Amino acid sequence: MFNNKEAFKLLFQENLVSKLGKPLKEAQKADIYTILSSMIREYVGKNWADTNQNFQFHQKKQVYYFSMEFLIGRLLGNNLLNLGVLECVREGLKELGWDLEELEEEESDAGLGNGGLGRLAACFLDSLASLKYAGHGCGIRYRYGLFEQKIVEGNQVELPDYWLQKGNEWEVRRADKKVEVRFWGNVEIHEEDEELVFETHNYEAVTAMPYDVPVIGYGGEHVNTLRIWSAESTMDHTEMSGPNNYYKFIHYNRSVESISDFLYPDDSQYEGKLLRLKQQYFLCSAGLQSILGTFERLGLTIDHLPEKVAIHINDTHPTLVIPELMRILIDVKGLGWAEAWDITSRTVSYTNHTTLSEALEKWPISMVKELLPRIYMIIEEINKQFCGMLMKKYPEHPEIIPQMSIIDGEQLKMANLAIVGSYSVNGVAALHTDILKKREMKLFYDLYPTRFNNKTNGITHRRWLMHANPALADLISNTIGTRWMNEPQEMVGLLKYSEDIGLQDRTRAIKQHNKMKLASYIHEKQGIIVDPYSIFDVHVKRLHGYKRQLMNILHIMYLYIQMKQNSTIERIPRTFIFGAKAAPSYSFAKRIIKLINVVANQVNRDREVNQKMKVIFLENYSVSLAEKIIPASDVSEQISTASKEASGTGNMKFMMNGALTLGTMDGANVEMHEMIGDDNMFLFGLQSAQVLDYYQHGGYVVKDVYHKDARVREVMDQLVTPGYFGINELEFGDIFNSIMSTNDEYFVLKDFASYVDAHLQIDLSYRNSKEWQRKSILNIGHSGKFSSDCTISKYASEIWGLKGNQAKLQAKL
Ligand code: 26V
Q1: Which residues carry this modification: N6-(pyridoxal phosphate)lysine (predicted)?
Q2: Mind listing the pLDDT tens digit for each residue in 626-657?
């Protein structure tokens, strides 16, 4: 019904009238958006139902990807693309007087995630559906997504992101599938038929209401489900009578609904907040109950669970699926411990996404015990058995036990529970997995060597290339044909054209066009004119010490000083672009945002230099903003302290759009380098082994670098002296001190000199436009390997034991 323009136009106008009672000429932008998205949802309805029936009929193994975050962004454009009706709808709307791109802006950006971990989950959903796997998301329908960032006088201010305000056309409320989740209470134990029976009394019941979002695979036939849960009150009006019950009712409602109120906005600092623990259990319990309901309809006995269901946990946040599954198997299904443990530990698999110790989850025992008394008993038993086994295995090394124990004094270590209770533990890039095996999780690796494996992250080339950069996608198809769209690793076909002048000219022209568009966006939003022929040098990601936005801005300060001191310096004009949200409580990160804005202000106003450089801090970095920025970038800053960035996925998005990487040997940059070599990226800085070595020996001596390197000293001193930046003395003394007195935890000054050199190399390299374009094409050609289709095929065959429909792709990997 959508596959020709005329039919679409007709149907569209019929819908406008029947659903909104408006003829076309009276419709507003929001009406057009609403009707269009509702038509698409209805259009996929049949395939959605067919996909589910097909799963049931063939009793296919289902994967459930449990994640506290799904950073999906906008769906309209992507859904049209995957349905194969993008062009027909675009053309049809144009004839009706509407611009599709403008309509896409009407949709709120579903920001149900912080950064890499949440966006990875969204890319995986797209690949699971596109490869026709039975793979679904299980998450929380937060009323407030990640905060909206405003910059006021250079400072970050957070505003609530009430993304549901305009309604959400993509979701379907499934009241028929609601379940109950229980908190608090006390466990009573009695014996029945010589078996111990555990019953929890005086618990608080919460209704978990599912909302289903269709996940449309490429081609539109296969439609999986993202099920997100909302907390609602279970009390009905009969419980309300009585003198003060009305107030109690309101109070109770509020406290219950708060469970799915908001996404925690800190992804690097763990805090043992009760509400967060409630959210985690809420997700795990609701998700599991729903999975078991579906499984039961197959009519198989419960011992078949691991054959038919795989549960994957995205970091440790959903680790409570392990004890919760044990609880259901033992207390509800009546299984014995050993059988329940066997089933559970053959069903759950776990991905680790960070080695930052401050981000590792450790819950206070007292909190877990009170909120989830039965779950705590089960965790205690898992730990007892695990430690018993360790004592037998390592009788000579009792010191190992507290290190590996799940319960450590007053703390519950979630990573330890996740490793012990799952059959697969993976890292997200080769280097990261290596660090897990050799360092962070060495003891566990020694115990369970076959459990550990690597799955390097990926990104969906549909959103990040075909949708974000359609002109480049067309150019690729015109050059090598269209097979790459289904088999992204076929993009290597581009490599042999890297010297082709015609292709170089066309990639250059596309980049230029994208840069012009971004330049107008910047002008519209901030009133600043940037030179679209300058190098667009981009650093967008969460703000964190280890991601070293500070090093970038210090280098900009250094360049500025140089230009002020010597106006004849020849540099290719540069536009430095930043986008980053800082966790609201991470004050150091917020200070760096302020510093970037202070420097930007000074540089952009200074007529002596502002033809040669500009600094832009783009407000409210988000998925939809990333889609505008990345296709317009020349240089991609991936400059984390080596060993700290588990993988990075932004690096892959930039590469796929033809930007050249300025990076350290960290995360997936290492694998990028393996493919494209030294010549096609700009590497600098310490290697991860060197960094880790320094850490083992208490760091390096920052004062030595400060005293030896005049450039470092000059820039650092600018932070605390009233110099070029109009910075009042000591205004940025906190940043100065934090570097000097913590021995520069993230090696900003240690890597500074080699970062400066790498920037110089970029300048030289960009002068040779043909060479630059050749490198850019090589990057694009190799980027297909980073498609999440490749990553998901590996998860499917090596972790989840799924039989794919993508035999061809599998054979190639
Ligand atoms: C931790 C916490 C702590 C408690 C509060 C909420 C919260 C939310 C998230 C996290 C873990 C964040 C870990 C993370 O995002 N890791 C990133 O994962 C990406 C996907 O694998 C990877 O590319 C990035 O390198 C890695 O930093």
Answers
A1: 653
A2: 999 999 999 999 999 999 999 999 999 999 99
Label residue 338 by pLDDT band (50, 70, 90): very high
- For residue range 228-256, what is the model confidence (pLDDT) as tens digits? 999 999 877 666 667 778 888 888 889 99
Distance 151 CA to ligand 1 centre (A): 24
Start-to-end CA span in the chain (Å): 37
Angstrom CA distances, 431 to 323, 394, 522, 797, stand at 31, 29, 37, 22
Q: Give the whole-angstrom CA distance, residue 545 versus residue 406.
A: 29
Across the range 620-626, mean pLDDT stands at 98
Q: Give the pLDDT score at 804.
A: 65
Q: Which residue has the tokens 């493919």?
A: 675
Residue 525: active-site member: no
Average pLDDT on 351-357 reads 94
Cβ 649 under 6 angstroms from ligand 1? yes
Kind plus residue range of the DSSP H or E element containing 24: none
Contact 234, 180 (CB under 8 A): yes
Does the active-site annotation cover 547? yes
Residue 239, pLDDT score: 67
The answer to whether residue 496 is catalytic is no
Structure token digits, residue 229: 């849960």
Tell which atom from ligand 1 comes closest to the C-alpha of 667.
25
User: DSSP letters of 287-312?
Assistant: HHHHHHHHHHTTT--GGGHHHHEEEE
CA distance 598 to 735: 14
Of 5, 9, 462, 542, the catalytic one is 542
**Residue partners of 801: CB distance under 8 A and separation at least 6:** 61, 310
pLDDT, tens digit (0-9, with 9 covering 90-100), for 526-576: 999 999 999 999 999 999 999 999 999 999 999 999 999 998 999 999 999
Map 160-188 to HEC letters: EECCCCCCCCCCEECHHHCEEEEECCEEE
Q: How far is the CA of 448 from the centre of ligand 1 (A)?
A: 24
**């090093």: which residue's tokens?**
551
Give the predicted TM-score (pTM) of the model.
0.97
Check if 598 has its Cβ closer than 6 Å to any atom of ligand 1.
Answer: no
Average pLDDT over residues 372-383: 98
Ligand 1 within 6 A of 663 CB?
Answer: no
Q: Is there an atom of ligand 1 within 6 Å of 146 CB?
A: no
DSSP 8-class letter at 556: H
* SS3 at position 98: coil
Ligand 1 in reach of 666 Cβ (< 6 A) = no
d(CA 724, CA 716): 12
pLDDT digits (tens, 9 = 90+) for 400-425: 999 999 999 999 999 999 999 999 99
Residue ranges of domains in the chain, CATH in brackets:
59-74+109-393+415-457 (3.40.50.2000), 467-686+748-782 (3.40.50.2000)
Active-site hit among 119, 653, 774, 775: 653
High-pLDDT (> 70) share of the chain, %: 98
Q: Which amino acid is at 48?
A: W
pLDDT of residue 806: 52
